[in-house]
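not sure who needs this but someone in the group chat was asking about Right handed beta helix domain-containing protein from hydrothermal vent metagenome so here u go. i didnt clean anything up, its just raw.
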Amino acid sequence: MRSKKSISIGTAIISISLVFISLVTNAGTYYVSNDGNDSNSGNSPQNAWATIERVNSQPFQPGDKILFNRGGSWYGQLIPVSGSPSGHVTYGAYGSGSKPLLHQSVELGNAGDWVKTGSNTWSSVNTLPYDVGSIIFNDGQSFGSKKWSQGGLSSQGDFYYDTSDNKAKVYSASNPAVYYSKVRLALTKHIIEEQNRNYIIYENLALKYTGAHAIRGGNTHHIIVRGCDIAYIGGGRHGSGQNRYGNGVEFWGEAHDNLVENCKIWEVYDAAVTNQSTTSCTQENIIYKNNIIWDCEYSFEFFNYPASSTTKNIQFINNTCLGAGYGWGHSQRPDPSGRHV
């Protein structure tokens, strides 16, 4: 049995500095709370909005801040608004308590959420809109094992997403909601989709429970991810085959002047942080620093091809990385490798 190792990585390819200058006037602050109402103005905690959908509908301006109430939880995909050289648009937190949770998951913790379909097989009663990437039992004490057909269900916790009826099928000795105290199904849709976005800050958010990526986008620049908790990511079907995927923070294709710092990232199917591309592009001035990463298949993954692509000034510095290959997805992968870089 391998011993669990930890490393502190401080590799700088070329030292650079990123200077973000905000020259903003008339910037607004907007509030989002589970106790809010989407018909409110959103301009104070007492008049907070309620949903991500309301946030996504607002045409924010450079320098604006959108703050989610600590201790709250929101299901859905955040589609951010770009800022400009005059100021970032910030998505962050207010209040006290745990970081606000943005997720792509459903909890099926009531016995009535499941119906028995065989001797040890159970089906979700309700349909699910997306593939199930993983099932998190009892807040991460154990995880389901994804199978590709109902016939593959043979051990406690095995599950299958049945596209014929869009329901989850689970192997369990008794009703899953009885066998486990908590059952959370991570659905395969990104938590934040930032395609073609720029000048955005994500700060002090909890991004958890998705079968896809936590933060994903191509053609990005001047993105800052700071002080976020990112966990229980990935495992969803990628394409029509049996490949699975899911990264914590992914910068795809054209990307420059992006920063990920002071985050905690754990239990990710693929890479905690990555910049990658399979089409000719330029990736430059991307920094990952002072993050704590554990139990991901890869702490940092990078590729950029074909040969016509340009890569320069990528830094992975002062990150503490532990237990690569010890995450929930390692034993379920067709290519288990487990490495930090």
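also The domain at 6-103+190-332 is CATH 2.160.20.10 (Pectate Lyase C-like). if thats useful
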